[in-house]
Amino acid sequence: MSVELLSPIPGKVMKVFVKAGETVNEDDEVMRIESMKMENPIYAPASGKITEVLVKENDEVETDDLLLVIED
Amino acid sequence: MLDVFASGFSGLIAGFLHLSMPNIIMIVIGGILLFLGIKKDFEPLLLVPIGFGCILVNIPLADLMEPGGFLRTIYEAGIMTELFPLLIFVGIGAMTDFEPVLENPITFLLGAAGQFGIFLTLALALALGFKELEAVSIGIIGACDGPTAIYVTSQYAPHLLGAVSVAAYSYMSLVPLIQPPIMRALTTEKERTTVMKAHKKTVSPTTKLLFPLVITILGGLIAPKGLPLLGTIMLGNLMRESGAVERLTKASQNEIANVVTLLLGISIGATMDGRVFLQPQTLIVLCLGFIAICLDTACGVFLGKVLYVFTGGKVNPLIGAAGISAFPMSARVVMREGQKYNKKNYLLMHAMGANAGGQIGSVIAAAVMLSVLKGMGII
Amino acid sequence: MDKFTFGMTMLVVGMGGTLLTLGVMSAIMTVLKKVFPYKAESNSENKS
Fold first, then answer.
1. Rounded to a whole number, what is the distance in Å from the CA of B368 to chain A's nearest CA?
2. Which of A66, B246, B324, B329 is the least buried, fewest Cβ under 10 Å from its Cβ?
3. How many CA atoms lie within 13 A of B208 on its CB side?
4. Interface residue B60 vs chain A (CB under 8 A)
5. Does the distance separating the beta carbons of A45 and B201 come in below 8 Å?
6. Structural contact between residues B173 and B42, judged by C-beta atoms closer than 8 angstroms
7. B199 touches chain A (CB under 8 A)
8. Which sign, positive or negative, has the C-alpha torsion B156, B157, B162, B163?
C-alpha cells in the first residue's frame, strides 16, 4: 500500500534528504520546508521504500501539494 | 593666568566629578542591553538604540534630556506626541499577513484570551498599591507589544516609560523560554498530540481587502480611544493587500519602520536616567510584566482547552499560547512544542492564526481599556 | 470611586469587552468569507 505525504504547510522546499528508491523509517526527517521564515522539518508518515519524490529544492509548495510517495 | 588655566581644566574633569552611582549603574545596564542585543540577538533592532540611549543620558552635564537637548527634542517630537508608535504600527500592518487568522476566524478569540494577562496584572498592580493609571500602564506590558505599551504608558504614566518598554521588549524576546513550561503544565499529553488538519486556501482577495476596512470602522466605533492604534495598523494592511501602492507599502515596511525604530529606541533609552529608573518600583514593574506574559499564555491555553472541548477535540490547546502579539515568535514556539509530542503535527499555520489574532487582540485590548477608562471619566 | 471598584470594572468590562469585540469581528469575517468565497475569484490560481 502506498502512503502519500502531502505538504502540511505552504512554503519553499529548502532541503530534500531522500531520493526515490531509498527506504525510510516512520518519523525520519525527509525534507525541510521554509514557511513564515522558519525552517520546518517534515517527517515521514510511514516506514517503507520511497517510490517517488515530486519536489526539489527551491520549489514553492502549497498546502496539500504531493511531496512524496512511500510504498510499505 | 594660572587660575584661568585651572578653571579651564576643571571643565574637563567636571564630568567625572558629577558622575553619581546611579549613573554608573545605568551605564552598566545600558552595556548589558547592548550585550543582549549584539551578542545574544535579543531584539537587537531595539535593544541597541535603547542601550546606547541609556548610556548617553547617564553621562552627566551633557544635558541631552534637558530642554533643547537632542534626545529631548526627539522624545518630545515622537514619543510625547505618540507619533513613533503609530508610525511603527503602519509598518507592522504592512508586514503582517492576516490570512492565517481569516482562514479560521474562531482564532480571533484566542487572540482575545491572550490579552487577559493585561487585565489580571492591572488588578494585581492595583492590589500592590500602584495608582490607577500606573496599573494600566503596567498591565499593558501583557499586550506583549512594544508600540502599544509605549503608546499607553507615554500618555498615562510617563515616569514608568523606561521600565515598561524595556520589560515589553525584553520579555517579547524571551517568549521562547517563558511559554513552553506553562504550555506543558496546563495541557495533557492527549491534548498536546492533537493533530490539526492543514487548511485549504479559503480566503478570497476581496475578503482580505475588506478586512482592514471593516475592522477599522467596527473597532473604531466600539473603542474610539484606541482608533489611532487600530487605524494605523489597518492602514498599513490595506496598503499591503490592495497591491496598488507598492511603493508606500515597501516604504512603511522598510524605510519608515527602520528610521522610526531608531528614533524610538534612542528616545526610550533616554528615559532611563538613573535618578528616575533606579527605584524599587522599576523592579516591581519588571516582575509584574513577567507575570503578565505568563498569565497571557495561561489564559490563551485555557481558552484553547475550552475550544478543544467544544470542537470535540479538533483544536490543539497549544495554539492558544500563540494568542499573544509577539509575532511570529510565539507561533514558532507552538509549532516546535507541538512537534515535540507528535512529529506529524504541523501546527504552524494554526498558531499563526492565533498569533495574528493576538496582534489584533492586543490593539483591541488597549483600545477597549482606554475607552473604558474614558467612559469611567478617569482619563 | 475606590480602587476595588475600578479594578473589578477593568477586569469585567475590559476582558468582556475585548472578548466580545473580537468575537464580533470573528463573526463578521466569517460572514464576509461566505459572501466572497475563494473559488469564485480565483481563475488563474489552483495548481493542484
1. 30
2. B246
3. 23
4. no
5. no
6. yes
7. yes
8. negative
Contact residues, chain B, for C5 at CB < 8 Å: none
Q: Which three cell numbers stand for residue A25?
A: 523509517
Residue B177 to residue B159: CA distance in whole angstroms? 29
**Domain presence at residue B7:** no
Q: Is B80 at the interface with chain A, CB within 8 A?
A: no
Is the backbone peptide bond immediately before A8 cis, with ω within 30 degrees of 0? no
In the structure grid, which three cell numbers stand for residue B271, read together? 528615559
Residue A45 and residue A40: Cα distance in Å, rounded? Answer: 15
Distance CA B330, CA B113 (A): 14
Number of domains observed in the structure of chain B: 1
Is B15 inside any structural domain?
Answer: no
Exposure class string for C3-42: b at 16+ Cβ within 10 A, else e: eeebbebbbebbbebbbebbeebbebbeebbeebebeeee
Instruction: Determine which of A5, A62, A66, A67 to mutate to test the interface with C (most C C-beta atoms within 10 Å).
Output: A62
CB contact under 8 A, B332 and A8: no
Domain residues for B246?
20-376
Return the number of other C-beta atoms located less than 10 Å from residue B110's C-beta. 34
C-alpha of B118 from chain center: 12
Contacts of B328 in chain A (CB under 8 A): 36-38
Residue ranges and CATH numbers for the domains of chain A are 2-71 (2.40.50.100)
Q: CA A69 to CA B179: how far, in whole Å? A: 36
Would B4 be classed as within a structural domain? no
Q: What is chain C's mean pLDDT, rounded?
A: 84
Residue B336 within a domain: yes
Kindly tell me the sign of the dihedral angle through the C-alpha atoms of B355, B356, B359, B364: negative
Q: For residue range A28-72, what is the model confidence (pLDDT) as tens digits? A: 999 999 987 788 899 998 999 999 999 999 999 988 889 999 987
